[in-house]
Design goal:
This is DUF547 domain-containing protein. This protein is an all-alpha fold. It has helices at 11-24, 49-58, 67-70, 74-86, 95-117, 153-164, 195-207, 226-229, 241-248; strands at residues 142-143, 150-151, 222-223, 261-262.
C-alpha cells in the first residue's frame, strides 16, 4: 500500500484513524466509514461519446496522455463532467451502465485535476502527503447531483465503486490515477453494452504488461503493487492473486503457491513524451 494514495480499508486502518483523528482535528478520516451511493430518479444512462472523442484524440495506444494538447479542449471535458454531475445513475440503469458511469467519472475527473495543475511531473505534487486528509485524492472538487457537499476521488473509489461493486476486482485494471504504474488509460470511454469485454481486455493488457508484471520465475514473480494495495479484493469467492494472474496471462503461468514480490510503484505522470 502506498501511504500517500490508494489504500485497502480495514478494521486496523479504521482503529488507527480513530486514534489520530483528535490529533489532526478533522473528520476527514471518518467519511470513509460511510458508504456513498448518490442516485437521481428519472435519469437515463449518460452518453459518453464526448469523453470517448477526447480519449481517442489525446490518449495513445500505450495509454499515455497528451496533457499539453488536451488543455485546449479542457472546456469540452468540463462540459462532459457537468453532464455527469447532473445525471446521476439510479437502480433503473443496468449494473453495467452504472459501473461504466463511475469508471468514466473517476478517470475524467482525474484528468481534469491534472489539467488544472499542469504542468506537473506527478499527480502527487497536486496535494499534500497525509493519507485520507490532504492528498490530491482527498481534495473535494467533485459535485454529485444537487448535493451541496463536494466529493473527492477517494470517495468515488473507496466509498462507492469498491463497495457498490464489491467482487468486481477488474475495476482495479480500469481506474487510472495518472501514473506510469497505473493501468493504461483506455483510448475509449467505458459503455455498459460492452463493459464486460472492455474490462476483460483491460485485465489481459495489465497482467501481460512486462512493465507492470514480471511473471518469471513462476514460483517468485514480481507483480504490480496494485495487487498489494487491495489483496482482499482479489481473494473473494475462492479466488487468489495467483489465480487472477493465471486467468489473464497469455503465456507464463505462476505456481499456485507462488511467493509474490511487488514492484516499486512509478508515480511519474502518464504523459506522452
Amino acid at each position: 500500500m502506498n501511504p500517500s494514495s490508494r489504500f485497502s480499508f480495514s478494521p486496523l486502518l479504521l482503529a488507527l484513524a480513530l486514534l489520530v483523528w483528535p490529533l489532526v482535528g478533522s473528520c476527514q478520516y471518518l467519511r470513509y466509514v460511510k458508504d456513498l451511493n448518490p442516485t437521481m430518479a428519472g435519469t437515463k444512462p449518460v452518453d459518453h461519446a464526448p469523453f470517448d472523442a477526447l480519449l481517442k484524440k489525446y490518449v495513445d495506444r500505450q495509454g499515455m496522455v497528451n496533457y499539453r494538447a488536451f488543455m485546449a479542449d479542457s472546456t469540452k471535458l468540463s462540459a462532459y463532467l457537468t453532464t455527469v454531475s447532473n445525471t446521476l445513475p439510479n437502480e433503473q440503469w443496468s449494473k453495467n451502465d452504472q459501473l461504466a458511469y463511475w469508471l468514466n467519472a473517476y478517470n475524467a475527473f482525474t484528468i481534469q485535476r491534472v489539467l488544472r495543475g499542469y504542468p506537473v511531473k506527478t499527480i502527487r505534487q497536486l496535494g499534500g502527503d497525509k493519507t485520507l486528509v490532504n492528498t490530491v485524492w482527498d481534495q473535494r472538487f467533485i459535485r454529485l447531483g444537487k448535493d451541496k457537499d463536494k466529493y473527492c476521488l477517494n470517495d468515488l473509489e473507496q466509498r462507492l465503486i469498491r463497495r457498490k461493486f464489491s467482487g468486481e476486482y477488474r475495476v482495479h485494471f480500469a481506474l487510472v490515477c495518472a501514473a506510469i504504474s497505473c493501468p493504461k488509460l483506455r483510448s475509449e470511454a467505458y459503455v455498459g453494452s460492452r463493459l464486460n469485454q472492455q474490462l476483460e481486455d483491460q485485465s489481459r493488457d495489465f497482467v501481460n504488461d512486462p512493465g507492470k508484471n514480471k511473471l518469471t520465475p513462476a514460483n517468485a514473480p514480481q507483480v504490480s503493487e496494485i495487487f498489494n494495495f487491495y489483496p482482499g479484493d482479489f481473494k473473494k469467492d475462492g479466488n487468489t492473486l495467483q489465480k487472477t494472474l493465471n486467468k489473464y496471462s497469455a503465456s507464463q503461468k505462476v505456481t499456485a503457491d507462488a511467493e509474490l514480490k511487488y514492484l516499486p510503484y512509478n508515480w511519474s505522470l502518464n504523459e506522452q513524451k
